[in-house]
Amino acid sequence: MDVCFDDFHRAISDQNGYALAATITPAAPPYDPGRLYVFVRNTSSFTLQTDLRYAIIYNANVHLSKAEGNAWVDIFAAYWKTAIAVLKAEEDTNQGKIAEWDVVYAAWKDTVNALIRAYTSGVLAAWTIPCLYVAGKYLRVFAIKADKQASAYNGSVKFNDGFQDDVVGAIGKNEKLEDAARQINRIFSLCIGDRAPLEESRKWGLYYITNLLFKTYFKLNSISLSKNIMRSLQASSTDMPPLSAFPKSHRVTFKYYAGVVYFLDEDYVQAEAYLDEARRLCHTSSKRNQELILTYLIPCHLLTTHTLPTPELLARYPRLQNLFGPLCRCIKKGDLAGFDEALSASEDEFVRRRIYLSMERGRDVTLRNLFRKVFLAGGYEPLKEGQEEKDRLRRTRVPIAEFAAALRLGMGLDREGEGLERDEVECMIANMIYKNLMKGYIARERGIVVLSKAGAFPGTGV
Amino acid sequence: MTTSQTTSQPAPAPRKVEWPQSVREYVQRCFAPGSAIPGIDHVEMEAMLKKIITQAAESDRLLEIDWDKHPLPQQIIQAERKAAQGRASTPPLRSQPFYEGSHSYNSAAAGTANMPTSKKRKSADSDALDQNGDLPPWRKNTRNLEDRVSYAQNDRTEKRQRKKAADDATTRGTSKYQSTNTLEKRKQRFGDLADDRSPHMKEPSPTDSASDGPVVGMCQTLEKKYFRLTSAPKPETVRPLPVLEKTLELLKKKWRKESNYSYICDQFKSLRQDLTVQHIKNEFTVNVYEIHARIALEKGDMGEYNQCQTQLRALYSQNLGGHPAEFVAYRILYCIYTRNRTGMNEVLADLTTTDKTKPPVKHALAVRSALALGNYHKFFRLYLDTPNMGAYLLDSFIGRERLAALANISKAYKPDVKIRFLTEELGFESDQDCVQFLCDHGAEDLIEPKEDSIVLVTGKVGRLFEDAKTGAFRKVDIKGQI
């Protein structure tokens, strides 16, 4: 048994939280694939308690207080059972049998409970919080596996069999993951409620746990719960270490998820700020993370500033190039028909990434670009007496019929423009004006649009 | 425990039989890790399984039995144990007067179901049930000594039972906040007439309700008031499917004639409850939910409508028939109404390519896209041409969309627009309605006669409609029940 606890003893005496967390990780590290197996084989359920006691409490290498020793014995006893369940599940999977991930989840939850108990009774010091990271991380991992197996087995609809009023209990229910979210939330409370002085507070674990919660809530499609977490972080921000003092990896992930939450809330300005920061902090070689960030940052930027990503930027990320490339070309050209086509071609992908409803609004920019072409094609007013060439004004009174003709071209309709009424053309122009993409007004009686002499299309140089 | 292993389990059959696929699947389900019930060990389960299959084979009913719905052996064992326990825990009931506070329909139910009026006859009644030829075979055969033993013990070990009953009450999640006494009172309101349970009545507890068998209803009365269940429904108060079918016809007739929504809603809720406790999931179930949803829509009862919609979504996934396209369209419109972007994204993710070709879905999607792009012209055209009952949903947010369009128009058109134009664009019935709407939102001073028509002076509107719009979009009472 002692051989399994060398790492534990070393971690305790070095006060190395991450090394300590590694000793209760329910997955073997790549450099030691037999770790769980060795640990399980080194004792039996009859001798477990004694063995653990000898390895943890009566060992001459470490000096733990009695309470601390007992807490670790509890934790390792639960961990031992988890390890057995994990090994069995892996073996079953390898043999093509149904693996019982729900059993693994339950066992791991016991381990996590033992850990949480140790923290609430104040036995474990704050430097050990990486153990909580491992706790939360694997709760999520095992819960997802258990749910996946359950839904493969029972289908995604759970019918009520008890004395309920309605037939269906839940749709697409992720029973275990929902439970995992609750457990991770307990860990969150454990961290945020710690009143110890900052330098030895569990508050240093907050952003890691927050990120885990974000991930879980996103998977569960309950984005609104993420907002609650952000609110409670906000509320206790005065007695928390500043975000900049946290490890970079915690910061990037937090900024990314918070940015996406704002994005989905249609607060594109706030979202852009968060995502932009995430992008700046993101490690240059982690392409995938950058891609994820840009997936939301590009639509954000399109909606806040009506500008498109440069071809150079897209060229660096082939996946983004596929996703946004065709759409960007159509927006630039003012090609409405092409835009609609590209949008519906990527609809599934956009919906999956929850950016469809935002990308759809790129149509406004496409329309603006089309109308801007009408304006440019209109040429200039004739020179007035004494006026110089450089002061020459563009024609600002544009007949609605010209916009209608452009729309017909842009939407790929025939010359007669069936299905396009003049009122609808006006409606689109009105929208442009209302959204400040165009400056001017519609004089309906006269059938013209009167555009502003100074900057009819704000931000585009004309 | 592997499936390959288990398929060979029922091998010791009396005759050499080629097991049908459905039986094999049934056996597989018995051994699946998910179906294990704590407290029932393997040996018991296997013994029961053997018994079930052997009996079925001997009586040549292997193909007759609907194995997909047949209870698993562990469930049967559990139900038996429950039944035994249920008997043991019932005595405290007897000290209560039975008809106190019971509702009129109870007596009606009792009458039609030929229920005993004196408590003396209760056990006799349960015996009568036992002889009922309709009992499934596994019931008849497993109605054994064990049940009777625990029943016989009843009077002797009163103390223990009281404790047991208390334990029972605490394990039921719902009774945490109810004293046993109030729970019993409530039970009686539901017509808890016979305190002695027949074995196929279930003892519900939320923890393992999934493994309980369905109730078999016996009530013949068509109408029934809705009560939220806090304990097992009594078969005497539950209407079986043929009765429920008649109930639906009656309710449809009554709705057409009387249009009394609170009555109808209540009746539909009890109808849904009866379907649920009997595990009836078929086209009729879908039909009930669809009709209730439509009626709720018509009355603008969004809360109730939403409940039905959630249920329908799951029912459609089981391909039980009904009108999925119509209701997917409502779901889209409902998401627009509640401005639920996450929900909308979910609907879009669920849509298949064939869904999108169905006219109601197409319409709803067009509405969505028109609103997303601010194309009020198209939106109000679509509004006037809404299929099915979507117009009721659209009506619930047409006002705020009109304000949005007005804010838009007043900013874009100068110096004024004709009322006629607004009436057309915003889908009003008449100019008068249009003017009324404008006045309702404080624009009476901005309406002026001009030459041969009346105009809205958009130049002077300022932020009037903009503010009204912001206000209208802010408050969406999602759970807005009548």
UniProtKB/TrEMBL annotation, chain A:
Looking up Pfam families in the UniProt record yields: PCI (PF01399)
Q: Which GO terms describe its molecular function?
A: double-stranded DNA binding; RNA binding
Superkingdom of source: Eukaryota
PCI domain span: 252-456
List each coiled-coil range: none
Protein family per UniProt: Belongs to the CSN12 family.
Protein name (Swiss-Prot/TrEMBL): Protein CSN12 homolog
UniProtKB/TrEMBL annotation, chain B:
Q: Which segments show compositional bias classed as Polar residues?
A: 103-117, 171-182
Sequence segments annotated as region (Disordered): 80-215
Where does the signal peptide begin and end? none
List the GO terms this entry assigns under cellular component, sorted alphabetically: nucleus
Compositional bias of type Basic and acidic residues: which residue ranges? 183-205
Pfam annotation, one family? SAC3_GANP
* InterPro entries xref list: SAC3/GANP/THP3, SAC3/GANP/THP3_conserved
Domain SAC3/GANP/THP3 conserved, which positions?
A: 224-443
Q: Could you tell me what this protein is called?
A: SAC3/GANP domain protein
